[in-house]
Amino acid sequence: MSENLEEVRLTPEQLELIGQSLYGTSFKIQLADFLGVDRRRINHWLDGDRPIPAGITTELLEIARKRKAEIEGAIHLLEKILGS
Question: Which superkingdom, per the lineage (predicted)?
Answer without folding.
Answer: Bacteria
